[in-house]
Fold this protein.
Amino acid sequence: MIGRIVEIADDRRHLFMSRGFMVVQDTEGERKELGQIPLDDVAAVIANAHGLSYTNNLLITLAERGAPFVLCAANHNVVGMLLPIDGNYHQAKRFDAQIAASKPILKRLWAEVVRAKLEQQAAALEAAGAPTAPLTALVSKVRSGDPENLEAQGARRYWGLLFGSDFRRDQDAGGVNAMLNYGYTVLRAATARAVVAAGLHPTLGLHHSNENNPMRLVDDLMEPFRPVVDLKVWQLKRNGEAQITAETKRALVRTLYDDMQTDSGATPVLVCAQKLATSLAQVYLGERGKLDLPLPGLPLALAAALNDE
């Protein structure tokens, strides 16, 4: 079972634990119970509203189950995340291997991630009917550590091709940018869970180096999956959705349950993230040589939906 990503988006809600369930309660009037979710089914909780309250017991139980509790700002970006400190029984051994990883290994792994991201961006452009050559031309040029920063070069070309030459990626803007923020927030929570479950430390990254970012490895490993969110936002925009709504948020969450093609067959995006994090731990331990990345191409359900439109 993959687990459910649960968002609390309505104001004035209280969350607590009762008999194995996370209970959502209204804080006004008669304080009615609004719903229950089995705690074993929860993959992550996204707190995306004002006036929320929650019990310490609930937060402890979520942490024990490896389910991140994510705090969002008004622009739908992550500003905080509660994660367990012991996500894997081999954690100490894997931390040691992660710390000991040499610069050449980190550079080689980052190049793998960059190539995968560029390939997935090209697949998104192909689905959107946009030229793919500006991205595919960069894939074979990526060298260890990406010293030419082809990842950033690709991004500059990619955004204009996908959303039009007037589009600018701005985390503080609304509309398409806000939808991208929300989609990345959900993806980041899922990737964080995968990193911790693999027994890795989320701060010890491959490439991201901002000293104020405690989630550097998470931000590294989510890169190849960002185009899944991008294309869903493109589809929503084409269908007339221009703002964050309950329906657009549900659509963005659902993309993480769509299947991607992998060497072992069709696999949900969430599971692909888990396989990637686990493979990284195995590389650090010397148990394998390459990362387990999805094959180039779109989630199957999203590709089918685009073909039907």
